[in-house]
Amino acid sequence: MKHFSKFLAAAAIAASVALPAHAETTLTVHYPMPGFFKDVMDTISKKFMEENPDIKIQFANPSPTYEEGIQTIMRRAGTAEMPDLTFIALNRLRMANERNIPVDMGPMIAKDKASMAEQGFSDTILKLAQVDGKQVGLAFATSNPIMYYNADLVKAAGGNPDQPPKTWDEVIALGAKIKALGNGNDSIDFRWQGDDWMFSALLFGAGGSMLSQDESKVTFNGPEGQKAMTIIDRMVKEAGMPVFTKAAGEQAFVAGKVGFAFQTTGALRNTIKNVGGKFDLRTAEIPLLDPVNGKLPTGGNAVVILTHDKAKQDAAWKFAKFAAGPYGASVVVPGTGYVPNNELAAKSPEYLGNFYKENPLFQAGLKQMPRMIPWYAFPGTNGVRVTQTIVDNTSRVVDQSAKPQEALDDAAKEVKRLLPRS
């Protein structure tokens, strides 16, 4: 009997070695813009794996930009290289959905409806990542464009840093005075390069739209677009805005050599870190060409499930909810500057309830949340080329090789050619 007991004990040990306590699911996650998101992704995935020891997160090589990110996913769709989840720019969800790449999260949300509401996922927040009623993702990081300014240069030019400009006329006039200080100082860095987001900020801020409501006609070259592009022209002509590259503009601003920078609130944490104590950094709401009806584009991205493997899909849904939920938001906002995309995170002292009181530089983006509307997604498969057309023609105004209306009309003509024929 003694020998038999020993045999049973040995067999039990062998079985426990041969059979793991649980099967581990490995998810491959892709994301863009590591300069903004690497630390955030590392923190969120580490916490998620602590709470879900049966799921391992591994990261694919991140894409430098949103545009390169969506092109990478479209190339890899349906191949062995396709990741299980990705983070797609809000204005590219439509393009991905037209190729039927994202998994519909609607049934998952319906199944978890009660817990989703408890976790701060309101209908308004869910709509940010819907396309034609389909839930193609969950909004992860949302942003709006704000004004960053060097309070020392504003003061030196005769402005009041405690009362920043509220109109574009005031920005341009004060920018010209900062430029006139000499000593290598520049007036404005308006971050127009890369995509159409900052042009959208001026266009939507004037009450305009990219296309007509039925999407049959280009409208960004109408009166509102003219006002928008004229502001860029005036920044150059009247305030002496240089033809910065994106990197050069960032470097000049954090070195204390630019008065005003207009770009995403998502860059705030990096800007604070890079400025250090070199000058008195402040932020404010971006001026609107129509202060009553003006809106602002919602930048940022959504977490999207790509895998059709059932076991992986369940794990991917857990990770998507966690990343876009209150814990994820409590990491994204302080770690970047993005505004909270989760109502529980925004209100609860456990997450971000006290953060904004203690960090006034982050308040500009928060104050602008009621003006946020979707970052416009052009129909069809040429979305990236359409965006580049707008960027290229904005560039012609910045380098003064084209007048505002000429650049707008040329852009409109090319965009019309690239849109799907009805």
Question: Main attributes?
Answer:
D-Maltodextrin-Binding Protein, domain 2; about 425 residues; alpha/beta; 12 strands; 6-stranded mixed beta sheet
Q: Based on the structure given, which CATH architecture of the largest domain is correct? A: 3-Layer(aba) Sandwich
- CATH top level label of the largest domain: Alpha Beta
**CATH fold name of the largest domain:** D-Maltodextrin-Binding Protein, domain 2
- N/C terminus separation: 84 Å
C-alpha Rg (nearest Å): 24 Å
Q: Which stretches are poorly predicted, pLDDT < 50 over at least 5 residues? A: 1-21
Largest sheet, in brief, is: 6 strands, mixed
Oligomer: single chain
Round the mean pLDDT to the nearest integer and report it: 92
| Number of DSSP helical runs | 20
Q: Structural class per helix/strand content?
A: alpha/beta
Share in β-strands: 5-15%
- What overall form do the CA principal axes indicate? globular
Total DSSP E strands: 12
CATH superfamily of the largest domain: Periplasmic binding protein-like II
